[in-house]
Design brief:
elongated; 6-stranded parallel sheet; SIR2/SIRT2 'Small Domain'; 2 domains; 9 strands; 3-stranded antiparallel sheet; 243 residues; alpha/beta; 11 helices
């Protein structure tokens, strides 16, 4: 493994950015989406995560939400989350751009976090806009198959990005700007198959940044990356922390 080279690049970097996907959180006991035993093996993404289907028949999504989505807040950050948080506190990373909705980066100490696909922190009524915190949603789903607003009976939607929805504009623009300014783009645990999020590491590379990809599986960007490491993130994080 070329971990020493990564360490040297981190030392040399003035403007590093972390870009993370589901693989960062698997060591916290959160299944990824595409891997063996992942979410897409157990739920049909064309139904569960499609906005139109959700509005028409939300019961399937809320079955998933009851079993897994709102259990995310019970999970704990792992060594990779803490390593990334420490890099920011040492001013070695400008911020984190994440595809994850689990809030684990924030709970591990990262301050500048751009959650491209939303988070489970709160949900909102699609009719009146009333907000509900994650623990309120868990309480609602303990007694109801579908979460509806106690104020207007409208359908409640978690603040996550469904298929058919645009990414939150301000967060995407901030992420794009961060990626455009960095001199080292550190991609961790992402398949880099979901757009437009996957464009951000690409624009960083196009604007002169070194592109590092750490992921168990190959990604479409491996051929253009400056450094690719196919290894468990926990091992890389432990080595980097101990260096």
């Amino acid at each position: 493994m070329r971990v020493k080279e990564l360490w040297e690049w981190m030392v040399q970097s003035d403007r590093a950015v972390a870009f993370t996907g589901a693989g960062v959180s698997t060591d916290s006991g959160i299944p990824d989406f595409r891997g063996k035993g992942g979410v897409y093996e157990r739920y049909d993404p064309a139904k569960v995560f499609d906005l139109g289907y959700f509005c028409k028949d939300p019961e399937l999504f809320y079955r998933y939400a009851r079993e897994e989505l709102f259990a995310l807040m019970d999970k704990k950050p792992n060594i990779t989350h803490y390593w990334i948080g420490s890099l920011e506190s040492e001013n070695r990373v400008m911020g984190v751009i994440t595809q994850n909705i689990d809030m684990l980066h924030q709970r591990a100490g990262s301050q500048t976090v751009y959650p491209l696909h939303g988070s489970v922190e709160y949900s909102f009524c699609m009719e009146c806009g009333k907000q509900y915190l994650w623990n309120q949603m868990r309480a609602i789903l303990a007694d109801h198959l579908i979460a509806r607003c106690d104020q207007c009976k409208g359908l409640i939607k978690p603040n996550i990005v469904f298929f058919g929805e645009m990414l939150p504009q301000k967060i995407f623009e901030a992420s794009w700007n961060l990626g455009s300014q960095c001199d080292l783009m550190l991609v961790m645990g992402s398949s880099l198959q979901v757009y437009p999020a996957a464009q951000i590491p690409l624009v960083a590379k196009e604007r002169g940044a070194r592109l590092v990809i750490i992921n168990r599986e190959e990604t479409p960007f491996d051929s253009i990356a400056d450094l690719v490491i196919h290894a468990p993130l926990a091992d890389i994080s432990a080595w980097m922390i101990g260096s």
